[in-house]
Amino acid sequence: MRTNRRTFIGVSAAALLSGSRLAFAEKKYDDGATDTEIKLGHAGPYSGPASAYGVIGKGIEAYWKMVNDQGGINGRKVNFVTYDDGYSPPKTVEVVRRLVEQDKVLCLFNTLGTPSNTAIHKYMNQKKVPQLYVATGASKWGDPKHFPWTMGYQPDYNTEGQIYAKHIMANVKDAKIAVLMQNDDFGKDYVDGFKKGLGGDAGKIVKLVTYEVTDPTVDSQIIQLKDTGANVFLNVATPKFAAQAIRKAADIGWKPAQYMTNVSASVAAVLKPAGFDNAQGIITAAYLKDPTDKRWADDAELKVWREFMTKYMPGANQGDGNYVYAYTVSYLMHETLKKCGDTLTRENVMKQAANFQKFRVPGLLPGITINTSPTDFFPIQSVQLEAFKGESWELFGEVMSAESA
Protein backbone atom coordinates (compact mmCIF):
# COMPACT_ATOMS: atom_id res chain seq x y z
CA MET A 1 0.00 0.00 0.00
CA ARG A 2 2.86 2.33 0.77
CA THR A 3 4.16 2.14 -2.80
CA ASN A 4 0.75 2.95 -4.26
CA ARG A 5 0.35 5.90 -1.90
CA ARG A 6 3.69 7.38 -2.90
CA THR A 7 2.79 7.02 -6.56
CA PHE A 8 -0.49 8.89 -5.99
CA ILE A 9 1.15 11.71 -4.04
CA GLY A 10 3.75 12.16 -6.80
CA VAL A 11 1.01 13.06 -9.30
CA SER A 12 0.09 16.74 -9.48
CA ALA A 13 -3.42 17.80 -8.61
CA ALA A 14 -3.64 19.60 -11.93
CA ALA A 15 -3.00 16.37 -13.80
CA LEU A 16 -5.71 14.62 -11.85
CA LEU A 17 -8.21 17.44 -12.25
CA SER A 18 -7.58 17.69 -15.99
CA GLY A 19 -8.36 14.03 -16.42
CA SER A 20 -4.92 13.34 -17.95
CA ARG A 21 -4.19 9.66 -18.28
CA LEU A 22 -1.08 8.58 -16.44
CA ALA A 23 1.59 6.83 -18.43
CA PHE A 24 1.58 3.82 -16.13
CA ALA A 25 -2.19 3.50 -16.50
CA GLU A 26 -1.86 3.19 -20.27
CA LYS A 27 0.52 0.27 -20.19
CA LYS A 28 -0.93 -3.18 -20.74
CA TYR A 29 0.98 -6.38 -20.13
CA ASP A 30 0.48 -10.11 -20.36
CA ASP A 31 2.81 -12.71 -18.91
CA GLY A 32 6.34 -12.14 -20.11
CA ALA A 33 6.24 -8.34 -20.23
CA THR A 34 6.97 -5.67 -17.62
CA ASP A 35 8.26 -2.11 -17.51
CA THR A 36 11.79 -3.46 -17.84
CA GLU A 37 11.61 -6.81 -19.67
CA ILE A 38 10.18 -8.70 -22.62
CA LYS A 39 10.55 -12.47 -22.29
CA LEU A 40 10.65 -14.50 -25.51
CA GLY A 41 10.66 -18.32 -25.68
CA HIS A 42 12.44 -20.52 -28.20
CA ALA A 43 13.14 -24.20 -28.80
CA GLY A 44 15.67 -25.46 -31.33
CA PRO A 45 17.85 -28.45 -32.24
CA TYR A 46 21.15 -27.72 -30.55
CA SER A 47 21.66 -31.49 -30.65
CA GLY A 48 20.30 -34.39 -32.69
CA PRO A 49 19.86 -35.04 -36.43
CA ALA A 50 19.12 -31.41 -37.31
CA SER A 51 21.80 -29.84 -35.11
CA ALA A 52 23.17 -27.89 -38.11
CA TYR A 53 20.24 -25.55 -37.42
CA GLY A 54 21.43 -24.94 -33.86
CA VAL A 55 23.39 -21.93 -35.10
CA ILE A 56 20.07 -20.17 -35.74
CA GLY A 57 19.26 -20.10 -32.03
CA LYS A 58 22.78 -18.90 -31.29
CA GLY A 59 22.43 -16.16 -33.91
CA ILE A 60 19.10 -15.03 -32.47
CA GLU A 61 20.61 -14.96 -28.97
CA ALA A 62 23.42 -12.75 -30.23
CA TYR A 63 20.92 -10.42 -31.96
CA TRP A 64 19.03 -9.78 -28.72
CA LYS A 65 22.31 -9.16 -26.91
CA MET A 66 23.01 -6.44 -29.47
CA VAL A 67 19.54 -4.97 -28.97
CA ASN A 68 19.96 -4.97 -25.20
CA ASP A 69 23.36 -3.28 -25.51
CA GLN A 70 21.62 -0.57 -27.53
CA GLY A 71 19.02 0.03 -24.81
CA GLY A 72 16.45 -2.66 -25.55
CA ILE A 73 13.01 -2.19 -27.11
CA ASN A 74 11.19 0.90 -25.92
CA GLY A 75 13.40 0.80 -22.85
CA ARG A 76 12.83 -2.88 -22.10
CA LYS A 77 15.54 -5.54 -22.24
CA VAL A 78 14.79 -8.76 -24.13
CA ASN A 79 15.13 -11.96 -22.10
CA PHE A 80 15.55 -14.71 -24.70
CA VAL A 81 14.91 -18.10 -23.12
CA THR A 82 15.96 -20.97 -25.36
CA TYR A 83 16.04 -24.74 -24.84
CA ASP A 84 17.36 -27.69 -26.82
CA ASP A 85 14.63 -29.98 -28.14
CA GLY A 86 16.90 -32.19 -30.25
CA TYR A 87 14.43 -31.99 -33.19
CA SER A 88 12.28 -34.44 -31.22
CA PRO A 89 8.56 -33.55 -31.08
CA PRO A 90 7.99 -35.09 -27.60
CA LYS A 91 10.91 -33.04 -26.28
CA THR A 92 9.52 -29.93 -27.99
CA VAL A 93 6.23 -30.42 -26.16
CA GLU A 94 8.11 -30.75 -22.87
CA VAL A 95 10.25 -27.63 -23.23
CA VAL A 96 7.45 -25.50 -24.69
CA ARG A 97 5.14 -26.33 -21.78
CA ARG A 98 7.97 -25.21 -19.53
CA LEU A 99 8.36 -21.95 -21.48
CA VAL A 100 4.64 -21.18 -21.36
CA GLU A 101 3.65 -22.47 -17.93
CA GLN A 102 6.79 -21.99 -15.85
CA ASP A 103 8.92 -19.34 -17.57
CA LYS A 104 5.73 -17.54 -18.61
CA VAL A 105 7.08 -16.07 -21.83
CA LEU A 106 5.12 -13.44 -23.74
CA CYS A 107 5.31 -15.52 -26.89
CA LEU A 108 7.26 -18.22 -28.69
CA PHE A 109 9.61 -16.99 -31.38
CA ASN A 110 11.09 -18.99 -34.27
CA THR A 111 10.68 -22.47 -32.82
CA LEU A 112 12.33 -24.72 -35.39
CA GLY A 113 11.13 -27.69 -37.40
CA THR A 114 7.89 -28.81 -39.02
CA PRO A 115 7.34 -31.91 -36.84
CA SER A 116 8.36 -29.97 -33.73
CA ASN A 117 5.97 -27.09 -34.37
CA THR A 118 3.21 -29.48 -35.38
CA ALA A 119 3.47 -31.11 -31.94
CA ILE A 120 2.73 -27.79 -30.18
CA HIS A 121 0.42 -26.22 -32.78
CA LYS A 122 -2.92 -26.92 -31.07
CA TYR A 123 -1.51 -26.35 -27.58
CA MET A 124 -0.27 -22.85 -28.42
CA ASN A 125 -3.60 -21.88 -29.95
CA GLN A 126 -5.57 -23.31 -27.04
CA LYS A 127 -3.36 -21.31 -24.66
CA LYS A 128 -3.67 -18.23 -26.92
CA VAL A 129 0.09 -17.69 -26.83
CA PRO A 130 1.71 -16.44 -30.08
CA GLN A 131 3.72 -19.07 -31.95
CA LEU A 132 5.38 -16.46 -34.07
CA TYR A 133 7.61 -16.55 -37.16
CA VAL A 134 8.17 -20.29 -36.90
CA ALA A 135 11.32 -21.69 -38.50
CA THR A 136 9.58 -23.96 -41.00
CA GLY A 137 7.88 -23.30 -44.31
CA ALA A 138 4.99 -25.73 -44.00
CA SER A 139 1.83 -24.25 -45.48
CA LYS A 140 -0.16 -24.99 -42.31
CA TRP A 141 1.41 -22.00 -40.52
CA GLY A 142 -0.62 -19.61 -42.65
CA ASP A 143 -4.12 -20.53 -41.43
CA PRO A 144 -5.38 -17.60 -39.32
CA LYS A 145 -8.98 -18.79 -39.50
CA HIS A 146 -8.27 -22.02 -37.60
CA PHE A 147 -4.95 -21.16 -35.89
CA PRO A 148 -4.95 -17.41 -35.19
CA TRP A 149 -1.95 -17.61 -32.82
CA THR A 150 0.52 -19.20 -35.28
CA MET A 151 2.37 -17.43 -38.10
CA GLY A 152 5.15 -18.52 -40.44
CA TYR A 153 8.10 -16.54 -41.77
CA GLN A 154 9.87 -18.04 -44.75
CA PRO A 155 8.29 -18.91 -48.13
CA ASP A 156 6.07 -21.95 -47.77
CA TYR A 157 7.31 -25.33 -48.94
CA ASN A 158 4.25 -25.92 -51.09
CA THR A 159 4.99 -22.84 -53.19
CA GLU A 160 8.69 -23.70 -53.43
CA GLY A 161 7.87 -27.22 -54.60
CA GLN A 162 5.59 -25.85 -57.32
CA ILE A 163 8.33 -23.54 -58.58
CA TYR A 164 10.83 -26.41 -58.88
CA ALA A 165 8.28 -28.50 -60.76
CA LYS A 166 7.59 -25.75 -63.28
CA HIS A 167 11.30 -25.12 -63.79
CA ILE A 168 12.00 -28.81 -64.40
CA MET A 169 9.20 -29.14 -66.94
CA ALA A 170 10.44 -26.04 -68.78
CA ASN A 171 14.12 -26.97 -68.78
CA VAL A 172 14.67 -30.74 -68.62
CA LYS A 173 13.87 -32.75 -71.73
CA ASP A 174 12.03 -36.04 -71.11
CA ALA A 175 12.23 -35.58 -67.36
CA LYS A 176 12.32 -38.71 -65.22
CA ILE A 177 12.21 -37.51 -61.62
CA ALA A 178 13.54 -39.27 -58.51
CA VAL A 179 12.62 -37.89 -55.09
CA LEU A 180 14.25 -38.32 -51.68
CA MET A 181 11.81 -37.25 -48.97
CA GLN A 182 12.17 -36.85 -45.23
CA ASN A 183 9.27 -38.88 -43.83
CA ASP A 184 7.41 -36.20 -41.89
CA ASP A 185 5.23 -33.15 -42.47
CA PHE A 186 8.20 -31.18 -43.82
CA GLY A 187 8.84 -33.70 -46.59
CA LYS A 188 5.19 -34.31 -47.37
CA ASP A 189 4.39 -30.61 -47.74
CA TYR A 190 7.23 -30.12 -50.22
CA VAL A 191 6.27 -33.12 -52.29
CA ASP A 192 2.58 -32.16 -52.28
CA GLY A 193 3.51 -28.77 -53.72
CA PHE A 194 5.88 -30.38 -56.21
CA LYS A 195 3.14 -32.70 -57.49
CA LYS A 196 0.74 -29.78 -57.67
CA GLY A 197 3.26 -27.91 -59.82
CA LEU A 198 3.67 -30.92 -62.12
CA GLY A 199 -0.08 -31.17 -62.56
CA GLY A 200 -0.81 -33.65 -65.32
CA ASP A 201 2.89 -34.55 -65.46
CA ALA A 202 2.99 -35.99 -61.93
CA GLY A 203 3.57 -39.39 -63.55
CA LYS A 204 7.09 -38.22 -64.41
CA ILE A 205 8.04 -39.03 -60.82
CA VAL A 206 9.51 -42.49 -61.39
CA LYS A 207 10.55 -43.16 -57.80
CA LEU A 208 10.00 -41.63 -54.38
CA VAL A 209 11.89 -42.98 -51.37
CA THR A 210 11.74 -41.79 -47.78
CA TYR A 211 14.08 -41.75 -44.81
CA GLU A 212 13.61 -41.21 -41.08
CA VAL A 213 15.53 -38.55 -39.16
CA THR A 214 16.82 -41.38 -36.96
CA ASP A 215 18.45 -43.15 -39.93
CA PRO A 216 22.27 -43.06 -39.93
CA THR A 217 22.55 -42.40 -43.69
CA VAL A 218 20.52 -42.19 -46.90
CA ASP A 219 23.07 -44.14 -48.95
CA SER A 220 20.73 -47.02 -49.78
CA GLN A 221 17.98 -44.62 -50.84
CA ILE A 222 20.28 -42.83 -53.28
CA ILE A 223 21.34 -46.15 -54.82
CA GLN A 224 17.66 -47.03 -55.33
CA LEU A 225 17.00 -43.70 -57.02
CA LYS A 226 19.99 -43.99 -59.36
CA ASP A 227 18.87 -47.45 -60.43
CA THR A 228 15.67 -45.97 -61.89
CA GLY A 229 17.65 -44.15 -64.59
CA ALA A 230 16.16 -40.83 -63.44
CA ASN A 231 17.68 -37.68 -64.92
CA VAL A 232 16.27 -35.33 -62.25
CA PHE A 233 16.82 -35.57 -58.49
CA LEU A 234 14.66 -33.65 -56.00
CA ASN A 235 16.48 -33.66 -52.67
CA VAL A 236 13.89 -32.98 -49.93
CA ALA A 237 16.12 -33.32 -46.88
CA THR A 238 17.43 -31.43 -43.87
CA PRO A 239 21.15 -30.47 -43.90
CA LYS A 240 22.82 -33.65 -42.63
CA PHE A 241 20.96 -35.89 -45.06
CA ALA A 242 21.01 -33.41 -47.95
CA ALA A 243 24.81 -33.37 -47.78
CA GLN A 244 24.95 -37.18 -47.61
CA ALA A 245 22.68 -37.48 -50.64
CA ILE A 246 24.78 -35.12 -52.76
CA ARG A 247 28.00 -36.90 -51.86
CA LYS A 248 26.58 -40.40 -52.41
CA ALA A 249 25.14 -39.48 -55.82
CA ALA A 250 28.61 -38.35 -56.87
CA ASP A 251 30.30 -41.42 -55.40
CA ILE A 252 28.14 -43.78 -57.47
CA GLY A 253 28.42 -41.73 -60.66
CA TRP A 254 24.83 -40.50 -60.78
CA LYS A 255 24.65 -37.10 -62.48
CA PRO A 256 21.02 -35.94 -62.70
CA ALA A 257 19.82 -32.36 -62.70
CA GLN A 258 19.60 -31.68 -58.96
CA TYR A 259 17.08 -29.55 -57.08
CA MET A 260 17.41 -29.04 -53.35
CA THR A 261 15.18 -27.41 -50.76
CA ASN A 262 16.11 -23.95 -49.54
CA VAL A 263 16.31 -25.13 -45.92
CA SER A 264 19.49 -27.01 -46.85
CA ALA A 265 21.10 -24.30 -48.95
CA SER A 266 23.82 -23.40 -46.44
CA VAL A 267 27.23 -23.47 -48.10
CA ALA A 268 28.99 -24.07 -44.80
CA ALA A 269 26.60 -26.69 -43.37
CA VAL A 270 25.69 -28.63 -46.54
CA LEU A 271 27.59 -27.85 -49.74
CA LYS A 272 31.08 -27.83 -48.23
CA PRO A 273 30.57 -31.14 -46.34
CA ALA A 274 29.09 -32.65 -49.53
CA GLY A 275 32.11 -31.50 -51.53
CA PHE A 276 31.99 -28.45 -53.78
CA ASP A 277 32.85 -30.54 -56.83
CA ASN A 278 29.84 -32.75 -56.14
CA ALA A 279 27.47 -29.82 -55.74
CA GLN A 280 28.02 -28.00 -59.03
CA GLY A 281 24.81 -26.98 -60.79
CA ILE A 282 22.41 -27.78 -57.94
CA ILE A 283 19.38 -25.48 -58.07
CA THR A 284 17.49 -24.11 -55.09
CA ALA A 285 15.17 -21.21 -54.29
CA ALA A 286 16.44 -18.22 -52.32
CA TYR A 287 14.87 -15.32 -50.49
CA LEU A 288 17.94 -14.25 -48.49
CA LYS A 289 21.24 -12.76 -49.61
CA ASP A 290 23.83 -15.52 -49.44
CA PRO A 291 27.00 -14.37 -47.65
CA THR A 292 29.18 -16.45 -50.01
CA ASP A 293 27.79 -14.80 -53.16
CA LYS A 294 30.36 -12.30 -54.42
CA ARG A 295 27.65 -9.96 -55.70
CA TRP A 296 26.99 -9.01 -52.06
CA ALA A 297 30.64 -8.40 -51.19
CA ASP A 298 30.07 -4.63 -50.94
CA ASP A 299 26.38 -4.77 -50.07
CA ALA A 300 25.48 -2.21 -47.39
CA GLU A 301 23.01 -4.53 -45.61
CA LEU A 302 25.41 -7.45 -45.40
CA LYS A 303 28.17 -5.10 -44.32
CA VAL A 304 26.10 -4.24 -41.25
CA TRP A 305 25.41 -7.96 -40.73
CA ARG A 306 29.12 -8.79 -40.94
CA GLU A 307 29.91 -6.10 -38.38
CA PHE A 308 27.26 -7.60 -36.09
CA MET A 309 28.71 -11.08 -36.56
CA THR A 310 32.27 -9.93 -35.92
CA LYS A 311 31.30 -8.18 -32.69
CA TYR A 312 28.71 -10.55 -31.25
CA MET A 313 29.68 -13.92 -32.76
CA PRO A 314 33.47 -13.81 -33.14
CA GLY A 315 34.77 -17.04 -34.58
CA ALA A 316 31.41 -18.03 -36.12
CA ASN A 317 31.42 -19.10 -39.78
CA GLN A 318 30.18 -16.10 -41.75
CA GLY A 319 29.72 -18.36 -44.77
CA ASP A 320 26.77 -20.06 -43.06
CA GLY A 321 23.57 -18.54 -44.43
CA ASN A 322 21.68 -19.71 -41.32
CA TYR A 323 23.16 -16.72 -39.52
CA VAL A 324 21.65 -14.38 -42.11
CA TYR A 325 18.34 -16.13 -41.57
CA ALA A 326 18.64 -15.64 -37.79
CA TYR A 327 19.39 -11.95 -38.25
CA THR A 328 16.49 -11.28 -40.61
CA VAL A 329 13.82 -13.08 -38.60
CA SER A 330 15.05 -11.38 -35.41
CA TYR A 331 14.91 -8.01 -37.16
CA LEU A 332 11.26 -8.67 -38.01
CA MET A 333 10.47 -9.73 -34.44
CA HIS A 334 12.27 -6.62 -33.19
CA GLU A 335 10.09 -4.40 -35.38
CA THR A 336 6.94 -6.27 -34.30
CA LEU A 337 7.69 -5.65 -30.62
CA LYS A 338 8.58 -2.01 -31.27
CA LYS A 339 5.18 -1.51 -32.89
CA CYS A 340 3.50 -2.90 -29.77
CA GLY A 341 4.64 0.14 -27.81
CA ASP A 342 3.46 -0.13 -24.20
CA THR A 343 0.66 -2.57 -25.07
CA LEU A 344 2.64 -5.76 -24.67
CA THR A 345 -0.25 -8.18 -24.70
CA ARG A 346 -0.28 -11.41 -26.66
CA GLU A 347 -3.26 -10.18 -28.65
CA ASN A 348 -1.42 -7.01 -29.67
CA VAL A 349 1.72 -8.94 -30.61
CA MET A 350 -0.34 -10.94 -33.11
CA LYS A 351 -2.16 -7.81 -34.28
CA GLN A 352 1.12 -6.05 -35.08
CA ALA A 353 2.61 -9.16 -36.72
CA ALA A 354 -0.42 -9.24 -39.03
CA ASN A 355 0.02 -5.62 -40.11
CA PHE A 356 3.09 -5.31 -42.34
CA GLN A 357 2.93 -3.86 -45.83
CA LYS A 358 5.98 -3.93 -48.09
CA PHE A 359 8.28 -3.85 -45.06
CA ARG A 360 11.94 -4.15 -45.96
CA VAL A 361 14.03 -6.48 -43.80
CA PRO A 362 17.81 -6.13 -44.34
CA GLY A 363 19.20 -9.34 -45.77
CA LEU A 364 16.22 -10.28 -47.93
CA LEU A 365 16.82 -10.35 -51.67
CA PRO A 366 15.99 -7.16 -53.59
CA GLY A 367 12.32 -7.08 -54.48
CA ILE A 368 11.24 -9.25 -51.55
CA THR A 369 9.39 -7.59 -48.68
CA ILE A 370 7.27 -8.57 -45.66
CA ASN A 371 3.52 -8.46 -46.25
CA THR A 372 0.89 -9.67 -43.79
CA SER A 373 -2.71 -9.01 -42.87
CA PRO A 374 -5.34 -10.51 -40.54
CA THR A 375 -6.13 -12.98 -43.34
CA ASP A 376 -2.57 -13.49 -44.66
CA PHE A 377 -0.08 -15.16 -42.31
CA PHE A 378 2.60 -15.78 -44.98
CA PRO A 379 5.12 -12.93 -44.48
CA ILE A 380 7.37 -13.91 -47.42
CA GLN A 381 5.78 -15.28 -50.58
CA SER A 382 8.48 -14.77 -53.21
CA VAL A 383 11.76 -16.45 -54.11
CA GLN A 384 14.43 -16.33 -56.77
CA LEU A 385 16.16 -19.39 -58.18
CA GLU A 386 19.90 -19.84 -57.80
CA ALA A 387 22.47 -22.39 -58.95
CA PHE A 388 25.62 -23.51 -57.17
CA LYS A 389 28.79 -22.62 -59.07
CA GLY A 390 32.33 -22.80 -57.77
CA GLU A 391 32.02 -22.26 -54.05
CA SER A 392 28.89 -20.11 -53.90
CA TRP A 393 25.33 -19.65 -55.16
CA GLU A 394 24.53 -17.52 -58.21
CA LEU A 395 21.06 -16.07 -58.65
CA PHE A 396 19.30 -16.24 -62.00
CA GLY A 397 15.92 -15.34 -63.40
CA GLU A 398 13.36 -13.09 -61.74
CA VAL A 399 11.81 -12.93 -58.29
CA MET A 400 8.66 -15.03 -58.48
CA SER A 401 5.87 -16.70 -56.57
CA ALA A 402 4.02 -19.92 -57.41
CA GLU A 403 1.59 -17.93 -59.54
CA SER A 404 4.33 -16.32 -61.62
CA ALA A 405 6.55 -19.39 -61.93
The CATH homology group name of the largest domain: Response regulator
Q: Helix fraction?
A: 40-55%
When the domains are counted, the total is 2
Q: Name the poorly predicted regions.
A: 1-24
Query: What fraction of residues sit in β-strands?
Result: 15-25%
Q: What is the H-and-E element order?
A: HHHEEHEHEHEHEHEHEHEHHEHHEHEE
Give the biggest beta sheet: 4 strands, parallel
Tell me the number of strands. 13
Main sheet strand line-up: 3-2-4-5
> In the CATH classification, which architecture of the largest domain applies?
3-Layer(aba) Sandwich
Put simply, the count of helices is: 15
Rg over CA atoms, rounded to whole Å, is: 23 Å
The backbone outline, from C-alpha atoms, is: globular
What features would you highlight for this structure?
405 residues; alpha/beta; Rossmann fold; four-stranded parallel beta sheet; 13 strands; globular; disordered N terminus
